[in-house]
Amino acid sequence: MQKLIKLLCVIGTRPEAIKMSPLINLLKGDNNFEVKVLTTGQHTDMLRQALAFFNIKADFDLNIMRERQSLDYITSSVLTGVGRYLDENSQDIILVHGDTSTTFAAALAGFYRKIPVGHVEAGLRSKNIYLPFPEEINRVLADRIASLYFAPTELDAENLKHEGSDPSKIFVTGNTVIDALFWTLSNKLNNNINFENDAPLILMTAHRRESWGEPLVQICHAVKDIINARPDVKFLIPLHKNPTVREVIYKELKDFNNNIIFTEPLDYPDFVAAMNKSIFILSDSGGIQEEASALRKPVLIMRTLSERPQAVTLGTGVLVGTDRNKILEQALKILNNKDYREYFLTRGMPFGDGTACLKIRDIILNYFKF
Ligand code: UD1
Ligand code: UDP
């Protein structure tokens, strides 16, 4: 009988759950693999919410989350917790995703035991170690450790080659978020959200660490400016669970409840429905930049640079930073100019075609000579 590949997926936050779920389900359905899922619990509710949607139950949960947790705390507790799990449960390969502190610490735990690490969403670079913070360094370090690189695009693969990673271990697969999105669009969209009326809907999310404090206040001012300029618009703001973020947004914007619907984090299919319904998206999220391009929705990216530069060069998104005037200017351009809105329909889809998971599975099988 052929030996099974013992594969451990380590995930900790909402985007890792959404982007890894289609791959986990594919691998679980393949007889060549024995798949285990370890959740670090860097996120609790938001992680469980995403996994529940894809029908995935963790085999083991480190349950580390604390309120307002520090980076030192996340990194050290994930390193120790994943390390202990690996000492008790031997593995042939570990898969990590993206750029969170879970990603880096889990990769390091694998490296300390000389277990090959596959990095899904490898090679993204802003080339500024503080933007986004601490994600740029998390992914650089995960890539130093990895044995297999699943780069979403050619550009990400080029970044890895320039840094000296072994070219024979770098594969361009597309981003698994597009697999998750397409699967959701064709199977599970249920429009639970009541969009009330036909007011132009603007979907807004914000959570990045580098925006904490004054930049987040500026973002809120920009929302007020947009409402003052166009009182007919409705904002939908699903608040991230992080108290450092939600307290500021709520305090700044609570008096605008005629124009703003605040919600808890939405279930993934509801969030996809909201993206579809919106006239544009205002966000600092990484994943949403990718999804917006596949849905051909304009996204105003509240960052000064992006590790997904194709969004900007192809024009599927516009960098507006956290400057309230820039945000207002671009928002009004989209709201008031039909030709500009239609321009976004023609911009292409740089982040994948929905077949990333199949490619990753085949690459892992080939790596183990199956
Ligand atoms: C984390 C990741 C970030 C990723 C984001 C996705 C790091 C350092 N940051 O940022 O890269 O883009 O997730 O959303 O890896 N909380 C809850 N319930 C939850 C989740 C969070 O209460 O389900 C609260 C807790 O108080 C927690 C805080 O949010 O301490 C911050 O969580 P943390 O994972 O440290 O940072 P995020 O900003 O969520
Ligand atoms: N998302 C969701 N519900 C929400 C907000 C976001 O399901 O209320 C999804 C979104 O579609 C994307 C992912 O969460 O796939 C992005 O997560 P987040 O912005 O927290 O992290 P980032 O992508 O910035 O790392």
Keywords for this structure?
alpha/beta; 7-stranded parallel sheet; 13 strands; 370 residues; 46% helix; 6-stranded parallel sheet; 15 helices; Rossmann fold; binds uridine-5'-diphosphate
Could you characterize what this model shows?
The two termini are 13 Å apart. The protein has helices at residues 14-28, 45-53, 71-88, 101-112, 135-145, 154-162, 176-187, 214-229, 243-253, 268-277, 286-295, 309-314, 324-336, 338-343, 356-367; strands at 5-11, 33-39, 60-61, 93-97, 117-120, 148-151, 170-172, 201-205, 234-238, 260-263, 280-283, 299-301, 317-319. It has a seven-stranded parallel beta sheet, sandwiched between helices. A six-stranded parallel beta sheet has the order 10-9-8-11-12-13, with helices on both faces. The chain folds into two domains: 5-174 and 355-367, Glycogen Phosphorylase B (Rossmann fold, 3-Layer(aba) Sandwich); 201-346, Rossmann fold. Strand 1, helix 1 and strand 2 (33-39) form a beta-alpha-beta unit. It has 15 helices and 13 strands. Helix 1 (14-28) runs parallel beside helix 2, helix 3 packs parallel to helix 4 and helix 8 runs parallel beside helix 9. It has 370 residues and is α/β, with parallel strands linked by helices. Helices cover 46% and strands 15% of the residues. Bound molecules: uridine-diphosphate-N-acetylglucosamine and uridine-5'-diphosphate. Uridine-5'-diphosphate (UDP) binds at residues 14-15, 18, 177, 205, 207, 238, 265-266, 268, 271, 285-288, 291.
